[in-house]
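Private note to self, pasted from the team thread so I don't lose it. Backbone tokens:
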């Protein structure tokens, strides 16, 4: 059918450069000298034509339209552009391109955002903030360790919102640790910032103790099925007894063998942890320290932004951060399982100006083809990789090696950030002909990568032949910036810093190619390496490790390198020329560790057999490009492989202005223990070599720089060309991100006295260009705060922490910090782990006695003062006197050395005995006590207590009062410390500062008398007066525990008819107490219905092979829920007899008043009451339809293999409905549901659950009678 167009429509089409064309060509493209265009928009439709006013909805529709276009008229001159209009495109599968989707050099295919707009392709699903609700489930709340966090944690029901694929947390790490890894699991983001899977410790790590069993190694067959065991020295695991999927992240062996390993078991009595999987070299201690932290712990949600996913019930728990609370940005979980873009044998296709965000795998995988370009894109928040060229991801179907032939692919001008593994992987080139792949990443900003898979996942990985990394900025990662394998790669003009921040024995650029000596020819030139390994040993700049050969390192700048600029571990033909090393500890380290030709040497045991096999297999490379390009291979076995002598270090500049060089560095600027390095023409300068402005970090050389005269022929390094240039990422994105606000996640926090904790404000948005925040405290004597937002609780009271934006002081926030007494200890030091703030030097040291105890030793004539100020305090410590105490010898205690000077508590050995005195800052005596004997005898250990409150000072020696005085002119606060005179030394230990305690004056209870039913559980609340009492702990006592018991939290349980008195007793003063009388009523005559007929009714139980009827009983031997379908049951207790099989980690259960039979309560909104009977505990849950945990009690009623008379039901009572579970005469559960709008029906079906493991069964039998 023909179409007619109005003159106006024709004019509009011509004006826009778009015209629908017939003859089988897809409608919607524009044709002309600029090529053809299709349009895609989030509100479009794939049944549209793809025109500007009639856009497609998905890129697939545009791709298919291009295929149709190619099959009819062919590609137009200038190619085809697919414009994606502004908005978000949710992706749940890969956008796949094949050879059929290729363009040509003259007619490329371009997918890009419409000019001035940004199209966002997302593999995430946004969660509505309104779906987050406070956690009320007591079973969840009791697991959360931090009481302050319990009231702040929110819950989101993922399953109820249709999200059921949470992924699996799995083993991954170095080498074969990743052989069994699965696709990364669902992750949570707020405003594009990755949140933290709940972990402990929140910051930093802990270490293993003694190793009990190293477990298997990589050479053992049970590597993936058995782990080793180690002792731990921390106490936290005792609080994780309900956690069943805990993972450790860290190093358990060599420093490069990073591991993510599951905990198989914890023995809290022996304090051991057994891992699920083996470590590559077994669990061990070596020269670099081990470390780890634990995560995936609901118990440890205590920091804003921490989350946990209950995969069984589909629930997300979150402690919200400031961005969440202020509504800034989306709340997103990652859902895309596939690579976002998958190109196989496609050529001349470009992706431009697109935002690719969120995914569990990789943003773009490019296999085969040529000239696929990713330009001016923003790629972030992918758990695996950003771009992978000629390398499939671990989670894709494999492709044959001969398909990995892609060449001339390009990643340019792109911002790549927050990537779980390697950011960019470039493979390609012909290893037979040495034809380069020419795959390249250039002028891109790559940072914050390898957060998920931390080992050997660099910013750029180069493999194959002839690929390139040029002009990039690469920083902030746990492992290397660039990894290199293969031949003839080029690494040029890159700015690389803050790399290898977590692990040791690595480099910013790292190679480990000793086993493949034909891999040579890579050039590393004109790069800027800086601020690398400054505080971490074993982190180098360029590191050809383990006999790597044939590398050129020229024209680079190394600045602030904490270890080596270049470290050559026994490589050969490593050429380092024309480099500049500034403030580098070791410019060039010709490492000798593996050198040697003695028995068992490294070469003969680890390399020579491989080399011989390699050369034999390749006929010594005769007739191959290798011998032509690397002629030294012809003499490979003639050269000295045990002491390599083919390395050169020439014409380099070494200048140390602020950092001392290693004493092992020679006059040529190298560390060369065996003197094998050909080093000449180098200048170890004692003056600025001629930089434009070293202080400003400008390493351009002046025209008259001294280096040109000192090193003839030295070539100026083009410093101005290093790094990125122009706009990186989305052109339409702002050059700066404005700071909208500063907010604390919580308006108030409570800290225990003497503790430190981060009380940090968050910049909003988190990625603002200027995020600096300054902190201050309204009362530093109560709560001090450092520049990083860490608060220290110094004294009981309240202080306000203020956070102010450094860029815009008008943006500020406040957080009230309340310091609670806790145990009253403000500061304690036993000197077992250092000085803890007390100064340590030659005059003030830590000495170990014969018992291994550490003492703080102050020599005569020296003083030491506390690391912080104190106001009112109790100081307690031990002091050890020397063997000789001559007359006149003395020591004093500084009392609050502050704005008014110090008071002095003074002890002196006198002719007559000894003297104690208290003096003001002018040494006017305020109190003196003379004793006729030595109060502190030579060689004795004495306990001193000093109580300071306002002007008053009281001194106790070995428990006896010695002196009381007052200093009206005392400083309000100040340092406290010691001075020693006339003695060789004094030694101090167990120095403790405590608060002056506020006594308890009374206790009140929230009720004076009340009534319970048997089995009913009710909390009793006690209030301690005054509100600021120092010790608010309560001890609970029942006068008749057999009638009514009470636990340590004041929760009472009725047991038998009668009355009891429940008493709350002050822990500080047992004379202060309050009581309440509780009466337990006789058991009510609740109506009972025998289940006997139903048990024998074979026709009306759920039809399932798991249900059988032996001996006129009903037996459930398979997993699932099985219901009695004939009738609904209501307000009576059901009586029957039940036999429980083994639990084996599973559970049995009964559901009452269910909407349906055969469906668990968690399926399709099936409401009702569910009692879950586990081997160790019994849970009562209501499903309305969401789950609420009503009660958890220990299971002392139903043992595996036992038979029990059961009464169970929900009966109407005044004030609601009461759930009853009895075993014989024992009331197991008696819980009132007082929900006034209870949606659970008055009548419903009875279901029996069997989720025990190992094929175990539960069997119901007829009860004997109603009585």
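Design output:
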């Amino acid at each position: 059918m023909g179409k007619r167009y109005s003159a106006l429509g024709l004019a509009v089409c011509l004006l826009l450069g778009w015209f629908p064309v017939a003859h089988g060509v897809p409608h919607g493209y524009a044709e002309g000298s600029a090529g053809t265009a299709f349009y895609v928009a989030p509100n479009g439709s794939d049944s549209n034509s793809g025109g500007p006013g009639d856009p497609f909805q998905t890129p697939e529709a545009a791709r298919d339209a291009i295929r149709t276009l190619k099959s009819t008229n062919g590609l137009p001159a200038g190619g085809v552009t697919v414009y994606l209009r502004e908005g978000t495109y949710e992706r749940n599968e890969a956008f796949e391109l094949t050879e059929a989707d290729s363009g040509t050099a003259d007619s490329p295919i371009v997918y890009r955002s419409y000019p001035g707009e940004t199209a966002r392709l997302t593999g995430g699903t946004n969660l509505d903030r309104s779906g987050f609700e406070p956690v009320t489930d007591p079973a969840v709340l009791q697991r959360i360790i931090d009481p302050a966090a319990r009231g702040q944690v929110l819950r989101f029901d993922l399953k109820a919102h249709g999200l059921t694929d949470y992924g699996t947390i799995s083993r991954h790490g170095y080498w074969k640790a990743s052989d069994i890894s699965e696709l990364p699991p669902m992750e949570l983001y707020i405003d594009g910032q990755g949140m933290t899977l709940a972990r402990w410790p929140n910051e930093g790590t802990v270490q293993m103790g003694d190793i009990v069993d190293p477990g298997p190694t990589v050479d053992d067959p049970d590597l993936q099925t058995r782990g080793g065991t180690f002792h731990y020295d921390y106490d936290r695991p005792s609080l994780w007894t309900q956690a069943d999927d805990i993972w450790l992240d860290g190093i358990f062996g060599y420093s490069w063998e990073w591991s993510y390993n599951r905990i198989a078991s914890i023995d809290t009595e022996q304090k051991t942890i057994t891992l699920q999987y083996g470590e590559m070299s077994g669990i061990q201690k070596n020269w670099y320290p081990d470390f780890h932290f634990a995560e995936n712990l609901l118990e440890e949600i205590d920091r804003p932004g921490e989350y946990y996913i209950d995969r069984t019930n589909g629930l997300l728990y979150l402690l919200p951060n400031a961005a969440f609370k202020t509504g800034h940005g989306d709340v997103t979980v990652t859902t895309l399982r596939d690579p976002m873009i998958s190109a196989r044998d496609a050529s001349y296709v470009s992706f431009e100006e697109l935002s690719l965000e969120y995914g569990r795998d990789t943003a773009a995988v490019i296999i085969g083809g040529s000239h696929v370009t990713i330009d001016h894109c923003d790629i972030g928040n992918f758990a695996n990789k950003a771009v992978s060229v000629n390398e499939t991801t671990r989670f894709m179907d494999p492709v044959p090696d001969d398909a990995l032939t892609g060449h001339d692919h390009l990643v340019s001008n792109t911002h790549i950030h927050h990537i779980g593994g390697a950011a960019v992987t470039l493979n390609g080139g012909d290893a037979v002909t040495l034809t380069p792949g020419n795959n390249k990443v250039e002028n891109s900003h790559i940072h914050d990568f390898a957060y998920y898979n931390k080992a050997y996942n660099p910013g750029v990985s180069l493999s194959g032949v002839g690929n390139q990394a040029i002009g990039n900025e690469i920083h902030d990662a746990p492992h290397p910036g660039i990894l290199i394998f293969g031949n003839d790669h080029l690494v040029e003009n890159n700015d690389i810093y803050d790399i290898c921040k977590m692990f040791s024995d690595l480099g910013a650029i790292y190679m480990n190619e000793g086993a493949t000596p034909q891999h040579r020819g890579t050039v590393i030139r004109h790069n800027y390496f800086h601020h690398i390994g400054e505080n971490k040993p074993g982190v180098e700049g360029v590191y050809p490790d383990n006999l790597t050969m044939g590398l050129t390192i020229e024209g680079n700048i190394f600045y602030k390198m904490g270890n080596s600029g270049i470290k050559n571990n026994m490589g050969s033909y490593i050429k380092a020329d024309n480099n500049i090393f500034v403030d580098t500890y070791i410019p060039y380290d010709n490492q000798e560790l593996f050198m040697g030709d003695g028995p068992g040497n490294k070469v003969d045991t680890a390399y020579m057999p491989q080399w011989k096999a390699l050369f034999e297999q390749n006929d010594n490379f005769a007739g191959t490009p290798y011998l032509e390009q690397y002629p030294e291979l012809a003499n490979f076995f003639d050269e000295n492989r045990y002491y390599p002598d083919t390395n050169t270090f020439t014409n380099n500049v070494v200048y140390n202005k602020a950092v001392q060089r290693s004493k092992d560095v020679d006059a040529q600027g190298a560390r060369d223990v065996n003197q094998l390095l050909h080093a000449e023409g180098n200048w170890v300068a004692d003056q600025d070599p001629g930089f434009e402005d070293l202080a400003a970090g400008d390493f351009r050389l002046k025209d008259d720089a001294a280096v040109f005269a000192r090193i003839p022929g030295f070539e100026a390094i083009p410093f101005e060309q290093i790094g990125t240039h122009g706009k990186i990422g989305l052109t339409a994105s702002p050059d700066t991100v404005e700071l909208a606000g500063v907010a604390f996640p919580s308006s108030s926090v409570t800290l225990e006295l003497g503790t430190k904790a981060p009380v940090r404000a968050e910049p909003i948005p988190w990625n603002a260009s200027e995020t600096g925040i300054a902190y201050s405290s309204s009362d530093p004597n109560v709560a001090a705060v450092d520049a990083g937002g860490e608060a220290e609780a110094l004294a009981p009271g309240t202080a306000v922490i203020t956070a102010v934006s450094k860029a815009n002081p008008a943006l500020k926030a406040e957080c009230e910090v309340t310091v609670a007494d806790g145990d009253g200890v403000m500061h304690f030091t036993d000197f077992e782990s250092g000085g803890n703030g007390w100064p340590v030097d030659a005059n003030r040291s830590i000495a170990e006695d014969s018992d291994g105890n550490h003492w703080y030793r102050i020599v005569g004539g020296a003083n030491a003062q506390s690391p912080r100020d104190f106001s009112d305090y109790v100081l307690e410590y031990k002091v050890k006197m020397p063997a000789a105490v001559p007359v006149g010898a003395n020591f004093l205690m500084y009392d609050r050395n502050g704005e008014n000077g110090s008071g002095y508590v003074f002890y002196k050995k006198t002719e007559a005995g000894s003297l104690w005195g208290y003096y003001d800052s002018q040494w006017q005596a305020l109190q003196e006590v003379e004793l006729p004997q030595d109060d502190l005898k030579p060689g004795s250990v004495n306990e001193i207590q000093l109580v300071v409150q306002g002007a008053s000072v009281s001194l106790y020696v070995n428990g006896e009062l010695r002196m009381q005085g007052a200093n009206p002119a005392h400083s309000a606060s100040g340092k406290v410390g010691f001075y020693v005179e006339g003695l060789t030394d004094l030694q101090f230990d167990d120095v403790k500062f405590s608060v002056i305690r506020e006594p308890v004056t009374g206790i009140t209870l929230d009720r004076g008398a009340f009534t319970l039913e048997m089995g009913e559980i009710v909390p009793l609340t006690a209030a301690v007066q005054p509100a600021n009492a120092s010790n608010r702990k309560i001890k609970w006592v029942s006068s008749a525990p057999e009638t009514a018991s009470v636990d340590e939290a004041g929760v009472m349980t009725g047991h038998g008819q009668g009355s009891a008195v429940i008493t709350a007793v002050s822990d500080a003063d047992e004379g202060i107490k309050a009581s309440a009388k509780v009466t337990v009523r006789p058991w009510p005559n609740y109506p009972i219905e025998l289940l006997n007929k139903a048990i024998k009714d074979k026709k009306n139980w759920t039809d399932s092979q798991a249900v059988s009827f032996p001996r006129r009983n009903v037996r459930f031997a398979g997993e699932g829920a099985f219901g009695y379908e004939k009738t609904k049951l209501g307000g009576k207790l059901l009586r029957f007899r039940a036999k429980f099989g083994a639990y084996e980690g599973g559970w049995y259960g009964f559901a009452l008043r269910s909407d349906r039979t055969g469906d668990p309560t968690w399926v399709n909104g099936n409401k009702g009451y569910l009692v879950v009977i586990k081997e160790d505990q019994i849970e009562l849950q209501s499903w309305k339809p969401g789950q609420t945990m009503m009660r958890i009690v220990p299971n002392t009623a139903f043992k595996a293999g036992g038979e029990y008379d059961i009464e169970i039901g929900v009966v109407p009572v005044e004030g609601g409905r009461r759930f009853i579970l009895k075993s014989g005469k024992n009331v197991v559960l008696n819980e009132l549901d007082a929900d006034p709008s209870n949606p659970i029906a008055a009548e419903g079906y009875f279901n029996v659950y069997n989720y025990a493991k190992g094929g175990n069964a539960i069997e119901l039998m007829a009860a004997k009678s109603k009585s």
